[in-house]
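Input for the complex:
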Amino acid sequence: MVSGKTIGKPAAKRANWSEWLQQTVFVGPGLIAFIIIVLIPFGMGFYYTFTEWNGLDLGNAKWTGMTNITRILTDDPRFWQAFWFTAKFTLAAVTVTNVLAFLLSLLLTQNLRSKGVLRTIFFLPNVIGGLLLGYIWYFIFVRGFGAIGEATGIGFFKLQWLGTPETAFWGIVIVFVWQTAGYMMIIYIAAIIGVPKDLMEAARIDGANRWQILRSILVPLIMPAITICLFLTTSNAFKMFDLNLSLTGGGPGNSSESIALNIYREALVNNRYGLGTAKAMLFFFCVALITITQVWFTKKREVEA
Amino acid sequence: MKKKMTMALASAALLVGLASGCGNNDAGGANAGTNTNTGEGAATEAPKKDVTIKIFQFKVEIAEALEKLAAEYEKETGVKVDVETHGGGEDYSALLKAELAAGEEPEIFNSSGWAGFDPYVDRAADLSGEAWAKDLVEASKAQISRDGKLLGMPMNLEAYGFTYNKDLFEQAGISELPKTVDELSAAVEKLKSAGITPFALTSEWWSMGIHTLNMALANHEDPAAFISDVKEGKATLKDDPTMKEWIKLVDIMFANGQANALTTDYNTQVAEFATGKYAIIQHGNWIQGMIDEVDPDLNLGMMPVPLLGDTANVFTGVPNNWIVNSKSDQAEEAKAFLNWMVTSETGKRYISTDFKFVPALTSIEANAEAIGDIAGDFAAFSQEHPDRVLGWHWDHLPDGITQQWGAAMQEYLGGQISADDLLGKLDKAVQDIVKK
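Predicted:
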């Protein structure tokens, strides 16, 4: 820690010292936790990327250079299948989640009697943990839908929802949307409420119709919220693991295996920690690249009233 | 100003305390590889009452009984035994590795033998000198021994084949068990024309990737040699004649199961079989306990699986072993617990009656009533045709292969790939893991 020893006057010295003390007190604990929990493991992971290691005893890690990376890039179709699945999933999940969340927030900022209750209801799924929620939905898809299908004969419910590649994909999308849309809705609601009333009123007096108000006033003004929501859903969808594990376990076959699940299995099922970490590193850079691009892109469109 | 300063200092002191607390914990976590668990380490000096041993086990079927046994042990000796169960639908070995990687070192855990045991050899305490070791059934030792040392206690013996519902077979007019694949096919037709769904299937990777595949592996002259040839690329499953026969068998099973096989997990499969909805299920005596919960009077038997010619087989092996973790704090206590479990009257009673085990120790007598119809049929069959009792060979394969075999089987079950593709994928799964 730097104490202000170069400063002559005691008062100034004390002020400077107090400044540092405050920084340490308030930022320090968080910083220490961050370093220990995030930065150091990340650095270690960077090292494992270039080793062959079974994950159990650190002494057994063997330096292999670029072998893992080459292998992933040239000889790992399962990883790329998982990558493709995740990309498709992210596209579908992000679109549906945000459209739905935005529509809900529009609806629930109108003068509805029940809007408080409805907001709570839509937000609620977010409070349930992902794994638990996955198992609940597993039950709904397998037993619930089955029973409804048998009773009513409606084709939609008679599908083997988690049993074929296509329906398994949409099954996971449905649960993901159900879980996250409420949270995004809250962010959109906050943004919509924050839009100055006078602007809307002025537009209405000028004769703008609902669509024009939405497109030219509301959307540009809530652009910061859109940035945040897109960012959150994109990175969450990319990293999706718990729903995948609990709903389909990557099945049938490997058709619904997300990258996160693929990495987990490479490391902990196949006993190849080094290779798994290498995948995780590649994955990290991909997600970083995509989300940064997205934030940069939407930030450009943010305006101020 | 002064007051503000004091406040700042006070809160600083408080936070430094917190932060250092944090730091200590994390240091513990970082050292986990070398196993320092301060909390439990301190317990060593404490009176015996404070000793806790943790069992990280996989057998869902015995979870409850094992906890009761643990409570009895605590009553007798004062040693607390924590049981944590992960199995059935969960991937036990991945969870165990995660547990070990996180620096948790449970005193006792489970491991299969042969190659499945490789990752844990460093951790396994030598049990050759234990009192019970001399009583082990001969065939159960090799899988868990290394360099002549016994490194685990075989849990029990299990056997599987086609477990079938005798009443439904009678109802369909099948008086004699099929001895060949063709006869099986005929029997299946009879069942169907009597309005009975022949097979209860499941999409569980292990049921297909391990048990179904083993039917073919075990039917080789020397399964271990065949598997090692496949691993080295000297032989492929695709060109293997036994595998081609096996495909016929699999086709009969897959074509005659319930419609929603791909979304049926193990629990559902067994529960529905127990209600008498299906005639045949490809599982072994481990389902007896679950069946008894639904319908203890269900009239079951074990039908040998026909594959080559007319010598149908059942398959037996040691599913799992108790491993004492030498890197844990209470390894000696763990040995004492295992010893008590198989030598004390209470322990023996639990193993034969409550766990419903076919014991791997000759010193414990199997309880004919407890092991039930399925194991009873197996015992009778193995007396009559000892040469047709084949082994379990999946553990010669390193981790990761059978999971991918299971995934490929799911695709075949779902009709997404052809039989040729299936065999190709099985070969590829082996090569993918074997090559470094």
